[in-house]
Amino acid sequence: MTSSKSTRRKFLASASLLSLAPAIEAFPMKKDKPIVIHHVFFWLKNPDSKEDMAKLIAGVKSLSKIETIKFIHVGVPASTEKRDVVDNSYSVSELMFFDNVEGQKVYQDHPIHQKFIAECSALWDKVVVYDTING
């Protein structure tokens, strides 16, 4: 039996990715090739610490220097309407687009990404990753 929390997370991930469809069409990527979307949610150990939040955001933004990232968006929960399907419990999110799985692998192994993990992993309590590829 699937838990309602798991089902809710899957729904939220799907809904957030579906809302990106117009943005995907706007990117100058080859539409006949797979596009990999890497969406990461971070929960800070100290969610009320502005210093920790600033350090995590700066760390995530530093990843933009990795050459295989075609687009990066760094965000925090929006003050939108409270609804059962909205999960705004995270502290920071990153959304990245890659041309292919190989480009995403370069990102994973890149020294900048490894440095980010080494310098910022003590800040977070939990991380959830959703990787998708166009169908």
List key phrases describing it.
24% strand; 135 residues; alpha+beta; single chain; Alpha-Beta Plaits; globular; four-stranded antiparallel sheet
Give a short summary of the structure.
The protein is an alpha+beta fold. The protein contains 5 helices and 4 strands, in the order ααβαββααβ.
Task: Give your account of this protein's structure.
The structure is a single chain. This protein is α+β, with helices and mostly antiparallel strands. It has one domain: Alpha-Beta Plaits. Helix content is 39%, strand content 24%. The chain has 5 helices and 4 strands, in the order ααβαββααβ. Strands 2-3-1-4 form a 4-stranded antiparallel beta sheet. Helix 3 runs antiparallel to helix 5. The radius of gyration is 15 Å and the shape is globular. The model has no long low-confidence stretch (mean pLDDT 86).
